[in-house]
Amino acid sequence: MAGPPCSLMVNACQSVHRRSEWRLEGDTRWFKVRMSNRIWKNFAVVLKAIIHRGVFICVEQPAQSWALKQEYFRELIKIGNMTTTTTWMAFYNHDLLKATHLLSNCRAIQSMRKVMTKKDRKHFNARFEKRNRRRANPRVYHSVVQKRDGSKGWQGGPHLASSAEYTSSFCLAVYQCWLEAQPAQPAQP
């Protein structure tokens, strides 16, 4: 598993990217938007180069990311016969709910699909609060801030970068998908 950090399509240029269904590239007058687009295009080129070699590919992006909606990734999905699924990182012991998309050339990745119900959300939020109360240094991933126009918004906290870390249970689930996709090996004498 490898790839550019999700912050390129989510956080780094979110305030200026102005991406939409009609303008997937975003506002390319901004350098960080152009840089973000270029890095993701380069990553898609690397994936295209290795996809025909039978390499297991799994790309993870937060649900609000525009990366997998880009034309070069849609083309990659067709070429590589890839599948996408949506899951929630909280089901894999993550500290945040974090809806995420998985793109893979392994059909078994569909088994990781999760749907967040109201009951699940309540359960996970209670678990997060309990876990944070037990910590000597509680984690702050984001906080509510007052904007200039008087409305409220979100701002990243000091532990936001660690929210990109994969938990061992998530990595194990991806590994299990890969194992399921492997052809059965004959027993050794």
What can you see in these coordinates?
It contains four helices and five strands; from the N terminus they run αβαββαββα. The protein is α+β, with helices and mostly antiparallel strands and 189 residues long. It has one domain (6-178). A three-stranded antiparallel beta sheet has the order 1-3-2, with no helix packed on it. It has a two-stranded antiparallel ribbon with strand order 4-5. β4 and β5 (152-156) form a beta hairpin.
Describe this protein with a few key phrases:
189 residues, alpha+beta, 4 helices, 14% strand
What's this entry about, in short?
Helices cover 32% and strands 14% of the residues. It has 189 residues and is α+β, with helices and mostly antiparallel strands. It has one domain.
